[in-house]
Fold this protein.
Amino acid sequence: MRRAENEATRGGLGPPCILTNMEIEEKQARRVVPFAGAVECRACPVICERVVNPVHCLRTRCRYVYAYCDDGVVFFGCVEKVFAAELDIAPHLAHPRRNVYGMVKAVRRPLPQCRHRVERAYEYLYDRRECVNPTFAQHPDEYTPAAVHRLVHGRRMRARGAGTEPPARAG
């Protein structure tokens, strides 16, 4: 009975396409994902994730780094849990000039002193003009209206009423 009703409402086109339903559900799920996520953005087919460099924490003697010894091995981590991993410090001590750990996925919003960047999965799908959340690549503390305008339009924003002449130099 229900199948007959569905076919009647769709003009007798037969059963619904599973792929179409999956696409509709995926679009609805994307709307639910918050854009202001601190560590990842999944608002479009490109998956963007914020990653941090734990070697930078050691080199700058970040005040949020802690260390502990377990069975003779010294591990370090972040008190603020910007990254969740607790890493063995021996590779860094053996090669202090190398980035022995690479970038580690951030699990919370990076602090202002954290060295971080955004890595994109499926980068070939990325287009700056079609990005749903262009401010994600900036540090969360840098979301000024001018920065958003530059990201979206790719040029400098001029103040209203500004003339074409450069400002006069003092002195």
In short: Residues 40 and 139 are 13 Å apart (CA to CA). The first strand starts at residue 40 and ends at 41. The helical segments are 2-9, 18-32, 54-59, 90-94, 145-153. Residues 5-9, 28-36 have pLDDT under 50 and may be disordered.
